[in-house]
Amino acid sequence: MLKHSLLILCLSSLGACSNITYYSQAIGGQLDIFRRSQPIERVLADSATPALLKRQLTDILKIRAFASEVLYLPDNGSYTSYADLERPFVVWSVFATPTFSFKPKQWCFFIVGCVSYRGYFAETSAQTLAEELRAQNYDVYVAGIPAYSTVGWFDDPVLNTMLGWAQPQIAGLIFHELAHQQLYIKDDTAFNEAFAMTVEYVGVERWLAQFGIPEDIVRYQQSRLRQAEFVKLVLAARNRLQQIYLQNLPQKKMPAAKTAAFDTLQAQYRQLKNRWNGFAGYDGWFAKDLNNAKLLSVVTYQDYVPAFRALLDQLGGDLPAFYQAVAQLGELPIKERHVQLRERGR
């Protein structure tokens, strides 16, 4: 079976057979997840299961039912099993851009098409690729990822990597990944991720409205406000840098202009922290590897969220109608699709 899967990947992926090692680790990593997975009901019945994990998994079963019954997301076996991977992230994704551009480097894969990142089940492998890309003068960012979707090809389990957050954030992760199963358009990472982020935000809002206690609602609202301000800061920095890159400055002046733009971003973040009364939740993000690729990792997920939110509002919050309208957008040529999203998001 493994050899057959590998053969399909080689025949169906761009350049796949020149990098058998990558596809072998991808298949091996997925098989390891399958091997570790067991039904949540079995985990709950096990007397050795810690009480905290039992509470979290019990809540997740309710979240899973809510996803299908209220958010109209796929009703399947995903997130009804649990796997402990014994590591902090399920995959590490590598983002890369040219030094003076936000055009992402893309990798193309069987099933999902071309995406603006490359994921590895081992951090060392992701860092090895990152060093190779840096040597080619790319801006590079490596991000640990707590969850991912097989876009409906398999039943995705709940992972230990998802459980370090508060309940609303865990619910958001599940809604986000199920949204990828609801709709996935090949070769358009920004479209797919912004759609899933929109479903995540709306889903958590509706979950909290029905089940949230006041303290959880306040904490989540504060978190979302800070996140919105952070995203606004990053998008503004991206826009400033794009203008610099489009000016075609003399090659010797470009690095200094780029550095000045990132210095401005750091200064603006310090001002933002002051308004947050010293909240330091984004300090780690700003501490290292601040470059085009790191900004891209935020932009990819957030750029079109306002457009999707506007579309949902126009449809009166009707999620099935929203899914249908987004699917129709996904049938358009990619350039026309993005033009419509930019116009709607203004």
| Beta-strand content estimate | 5-15%
In which range does the helix fraction lie?
Answer: 55-70%
**Sequence of strands across the biggest β-sheet:** 1-2-8
The biggest sheet amounts to:
3 strands, mixed
Order of helices and strands: HHEHHEEEEEHEEHHHHHHHHH
For the record, the count of structural domains works out to 2
Structural class comes to mainly alpha
Task: Please state the average pLDDT score.
Answer: 91
Helix segment tally: 14
Compute the CA-based radius of gyration: 21 Å
> What ranges have pLDDT less than 50 throughout 5 or more consecutive residues?
1-18
Report the count of strand segments.
8
Task: Explain the overall architecture.
It is a single chain. The chain has 346 residues and is mainly alpha-helical. The chain is built from 14 helices and eight strands. The chain has two domains: 2-164 and 174-183, no CATH class; 215-344, no CATH class. The chain has helices at 2-12, 20-36, 40-45, 51-69, 123-135, 167-182, 189-211, 214-246, 254-275, 283-287, 292-302, 305-314, 319-330, 334-344, and strands at residues 38-39, 81-83, 91-98, 107-109, 113-115, 118-120, 138-145, 158-159. The strands form three sheets. Strands 1-2-8 form a three-stranded mixed beta sheet. A three-stranded antiparallel beta sheet has the order 6-3-7. The longest helix has 33 residues, at 214-246. It is globular.
List descriptors.
single chain; 346 residues; mainly alpha; 2 domains; three-stranded mixed sheet; three-stranded antiparallel sheet; 14 helices; 8 strands; 60% helix; disordered N terminus
